[in-house]
Amino acid sequence: MSKVEYYLTIKEMPSQLRPRERLLAEGAEVLSDSELLAILLGSGTRSVTAIDLASYILSEFGTLSNLVNATVEELNGFKGIGLAKAAQVKAALELAKRLSNAKTMEPYIIRSPDDVVLLVKEKMRHLDREHFQALLLNTKHHVICRDEVSIGTLNSSTVHPRELFKNAIKKNAAALVLIHNHPSGDPTPSKEDIEVTRRLEKAGKIIGIEILDHIIIGGNSYTSLKAQGHM
Q1: With contact defined as beta carbons under 8 Å apart, do 143 and 175 qualify?
Q2: Which of 116, 122, 202, 224 has the least C-beta neighbours within 10 A?
Q3: Strands 210-218 and 221-224: what pairing?
Q4: pLDDT digits (tens, 9 = 90+) for 131-156
């Protein structure tokens, strides 16, 4: 048996099962995660198809969130994925992340916690450490920028008022929305989260910069400390 006969590729599958043909005929939205990843891979190994390989990779990482954070070295560790394929997959995932985080040309206005979550969730829910950030807003609550205040450990992030307000004062922000993530996926605020929020809120009143809310992102969920009555 020649190499061509036992090396399984997407082209060797029946046309009605090929992810690329399904995408062209029905649209990308109908494809499963495995099928979309299989298109990027192009071919499998001598014993499994590209779809089988894609399914195996997804099962090993557990979630798409984990796959997004995979390194080229981790992808290259799978049999059938060389450096070229690993780089191709990593590039596609990075483009998807950048697209989800791209800023629109129009000013982004914060009117509710949902507006905050829509802006930051896609990036923050994939992080494996606690990141404490702040949205800097002008007097009309247009977003000036998103400020990375501190990066903590798996379950904590230390924030000092000096770090939070330094950039806010420099950019003449009128208000702030605090944001941080819980890598555990549970957005329930801890006692420390509440205490830190109240301390920063008091500092903001002294400086003259209002803290509108503190949003905690956990997986696909979030908690607003303002809505829960902690502010």
Answers
A1: no
A2: 202
A3: antiparallel
A4: 999 999 999 999 999 999 998 865 55
Residue pair 135/103 in contact by the 8 Å Cβ criterion? no
Amino acid letter for position 216: I
pTM over 0.70: no
Pairing verdict, β 143-151 and 131-137: antiparallel
**158 pLDDT higher than 80:** no
Instruction: Give the range with max mean pLDDT: 48-62, 87-101, 189-203.
Output: 189-203
Q: How many CB atoms lie within 10 A of CB 20?
A: 16
- Provide, for the chain, the percentages of residues in helix, strand and coil under a 3-state DSSP scheme, each rounded to the nearest 5: 50, 15, 35
Closest CA to 120 of 153, 140, 97: 97
Domains of the chain in start order, with CATH, are 3-101 (1.10.150), 113-224 (3.40.140.10)
